[in-house]
Amino acid sequence: MKKSQVSLSCREIPALKSSNVPISSSIVEPEFYLLQTNRSSHAGTSTRLRGNVSNFASLSMEEKKEEREFYPTSNQLLKRPLALLALVPKDAALFAAGAIAGAAAKTVTAPLDRIKLLMQTHGVRVGQEGVRKGIGFIEAITLIGREEGIKGYWKGNLPQVIRIIPYSAVQLFAYETYKKLFSGKDGTLSVIGRLAAGACAGMTSTFVTYPLDVLRLRLAVEPGYKTMTRVAFNMLKEEGVASFYSGLGPSLIGIAPYIAVNFCVFDLVKKALPEEYQKRTETSLITGLISATVATVLCYPLDTVRRQMQMRGTPYKTVLDAFPAYGLPPLTLLSV
Predict the structure, then answer these.
(1) b/e per residue 258-277 (b: at least 16 CB within 10 A)
(2) pLDDT digits over 137-147, tens only?
């Protein structure tokens, strides 16, 4: 379906002198013109007079076509079922592509993530007497391979993959909502407003999908569990609904500084580069990697506290309970 928009434009021509020549139909010659561009077409009529021109008027019509110009036929659908993807709205296709890419990335990095979880929760798992005794990277790798085999490196990956879709959907919807809330009277969004909207959207999506994150940790580090449903039933039966939100405090606390540090480091590093390099794609990728690394290192202690609070039988009830137990500055919680 085509949408038409008619616009009338009146402009003064300084170099044009007025004339008293009468205008009649006998001296008017209609002239049709067509201007074709990549995105739209403009069509209108102009008036050309035999003699001095007293004024000029232009009426233009702009026709906008739908972005989707191709629809597969029934025969094409029967021969190539994948042609159904052409009927999917653009926004939905981009969201689905992002979800698939996120799930693939989480699956590829799942072994490293599980090793990290074992290193973070080792003290709680072995008992309070071993809280100061950590576990090394190589030791964690060999422990998983020896006790569980190759499949053990991907243990607990399913709830992590399932979490991607609702997390992304809630985050996108919440971000647009918070942008309207923090925007000014003229509709503009300041840097602080953008940071606040991003932080609030991250906290909202984390809160909604947090139970899946707890299930992922329990399945990955606690022995005896093989399915996500079994973990969930045992948690409900033995610990109650509140156990699905254990460690939520440090999770929410860590989101705002992570976004702020990430944004600030990205902006500072990019501005420090020569102007000819700032707009390059590889510059954005490298700058994003640096900013994400710095933000992750600074906020990592809160992530360690969150993981240990998610464990069954954890001695920590609040964030403040975790730090004095180590008797050392918070950065010792890095577990590296």
Answers:
(1) bbbbbbebbeebbeeeeeee
(2) 888 899 888 98
Q: Which residues pair with 62 in a beta bridge?
A: 5, 42
Structure tokens at 11: 């402009």
> Strand order in 3-9's β-sheet?
3-9, 58-64, 41-49, 28-36
Amino acid at residue number 160: Q
Alpha-carbon 177 to chain mean position: 15
Whether residue 60 is predicted with pLDDT greater than 50 in this model: the reply is yes
**CB-based contacts of 130-134 (< 8 A; 24+ apart in sequence):** 131/325, 131/326, 132/326, 134/335
Residue 70 vs residue 212, higher pLDDT? 212
What's the pTM? 0.66
User: For residue range 9-48, what is the model confidence (pLDDT) as tens digits?
Assistant: 666 666 655 555 454 444 444 443 343 334 444 444 444 4
Residue where the block lists tokens 């076509």: 65
